[in-house]
Amino acid sequence: AQSVTQLGSHVSVSEGALVLLRCNYSSSVPPYLFWYVQYPNQGLQLLLKYTTGATLVKGINGFEAEFKKSETSFHLTKPSAHMSDAAEYFCAVSDAGANNLFFGTGTRLTVIP
Amino acid sequence: DAGITQSPRHKVTETGTPVTLRCHQTENHRYMYWYRQDPGHGLRLIHYSYGVKDTDKGEVSDGYSVSRSKTEDFLLTLESATSSQTSVYFCAISDSPGQGAEAFFGQGTRLTVV
Question: Closest Cα of chain A to B43: distance in Å?
Answer without folding.
Answer: 6
